[in-house]
Amino acid sequence: MATAAGGEGDAEAAALARFRSMVPQLGGGNYKGSHGKVAVVGGCAEFTGAPFFAAMSALRVGADMAYVICTPSAAVPIKSYSPELMVLPYLPEGPPGEEQPAVQAEVDAAVTRILPWLGRASALLVGPGLGSDPSACAAAAGLLCVARRRGLPAVVDGSALTHIVAKDASLVCGYRSCVLTPNVAELGRIAGAVGLPLPGRMSDEWLQHAPSVAAAFGGPLLLAKGEVDLVCGPGPNPDPSSGSGSASGAPSDSAPPRPLLRCSVPGSLRRCGGQGDVLAGTVAAFLGWAAKQRPLPHEDGGGAGGGGGGGPPGLDTAALAACAYAGCAVMRGAAAAAFAAGERSMVAGDIIPHLYPTFKRVAGCR
Predict the structure, then answer these.
(1) Binding residue per annotation — 12?
(2) 314 belongs to an annotated ligand binding site
(3) Which of 15, 164, 313, 351 is the most exposed place for a label (fewest CB within 10 A)?
(4) Is the pLDDT of residue 230 over 90?
(5) According to the UniProt entry, which residue ranges have a biased composition of type Low complexity (predicted)?
(6) Does 338 reside within a domain?
(7) 188 annotated to a ligand binding site
(8) Residue 119 domain-assigned (yes or no)
């Protein structure tokens, strides 16, 4: 069942074909930003590497620009990692070492300050290095609400799954242009938020419940990371080459939900920290390209209010699935190349130089 990306069959081959149709062409008529601008919301005093890995990965697979919207305490370290990133220290944060309740006026002011930057983005990534500060998480949740109302594609990863989605699943339930990227532990947390507590102790067996969790959310695509990555949608499997996803937000009554796609492309035998951030940034860049093919309405205003409604129609399930599958294939292939060179010494930063050569193979580019 081999494909150019080492996929598993017809569905995976169709997803790759759909993804390849989204890849923008290089040419002299392009302008800065025409191949996507990714906004990464995350980064705090404790976690500065995660947003860097995510934003740089988006750039290295072909996005033109990447912003990192972080807390003031994280800004200087992140700025020092690379001159390629625009670093905006606008997320509010409490005193060091304390977790004080969020002050709504400060949260609203931060969201208002960030909105012009969000309006320039082609995709939003919330979570890498966000941490647990109540003010920062409240502002990130507010930005996610605005993105949802505007139909902006979003990836929700890491800290945002634990400290935002697991506490209020309604923020993303029915958000049809959104991809959730949980590892096994995070899958257990968000499953409980939609009334599907997973049985027993945490293990890879929890991944078999990912399709049911995705169906319960009723809109976001769920990319469950494991030995085999599972791409799960809100309803019956669409044809990834058809250009239209399922209109149903519920699984079939006659059969349990199942993954739309499985990615078993060989990856690294070492599981170092930061690989999920590389994947999240890669998928966000690809979602930006999908959105360019189907312009989405942007509305003015917004704040830190609740999600409310599904927003504009957004991207179809097949487009989201194609981006998620391609992101997994690129990330896994790049990680395998990094592991071949570094083996036990491999770290997440070693993966990034291998992203573009792997992307070219997956995307069928010259």
Answers:
(1) no
(2) no
(3) 313
(4) yes
(5) 240-253
(6) yes
(7) yes
(8) yes
Q: Is 269 annotated as a binding residue?
A: yes
Residue 40 near residue 128 (C-beta atoms within 8 A): yes
Are 108 and 143 in contact, with CB atoms under 8 Å apart? no
Amino acid type, 91: L
Which residues lie below 8 Å from residue 314, measured CB to CB, with a gap of 6+?
151, 153, 175, 176, 177, 296
When divided into structural domains, the chain yields a total of 1
Q: How far is CA 264 from CA 4, 41, 220, 269, 326, in A?
A: 13, 29, 22, 13, 12
Residue 347 annotated as binding site: no
What's the CATH number where 283 sits? 3.40.1190.20
Tokens (6 digits) for 301: 């205003």
Per residue, the 3-state secondary structure of 173-219, as one string, reads CCCCCEEECCCHHHHHHHHHHCCCCCCCCCCHHHHHHHHHHHHHHCC
Is 330 labelled as part of a ligand binding site?
no
Q: Does the annotation list 184 as a binding residue? A: yes
On whether 229 is known to bind a ligand per the annotation, the reply is yes
Query: What residues are paired with 123 via a beta bridge?
Result: 38
204 is in an annotated binding site: no
Name, in order, each residue with C-beta under 8 angstroms of 2's C-beta and a sequence gap of 6 or more.
Answer: none
319 is in an annotated binding site: no
HSE-CB for 221 with a 13 A CA cutoff: 33
Residue 132 vs residues 273, 318, 363: alpha-carbon distances, Å: 18, 33, 37
Q: Is 186 annotated as a binding residue?
A: yes
pLDDT tens-place string over residues 107-120: 999 999 999 999 99
Q: Decide if 4 is inside a domain.
A: no
The reply to whether 189 sits in an annotated binding site is: yes
Domain membership of residue 3 (yes or no) is no
Mean pLDDT, residues 280-306 taken together: 70
Does residue 270 have a known ligand-binding role?
yes
Q: Give the residue among 193, 151, 153, 189 at the shortest CA–CA distance from 170.
A: 193
**Range(s) of the domain holding residue 156:** 10-23+31-363
Instruction: Say if residue 84 carries a ligand binding annotation.
Output: no
Q: Which of 361, 280, 285 is closest to 62 using CA atoms?
A: 285
pTM comes to: 0.88
The answer to whether the annotation marks 228 as part of a ligand binding site is: yes
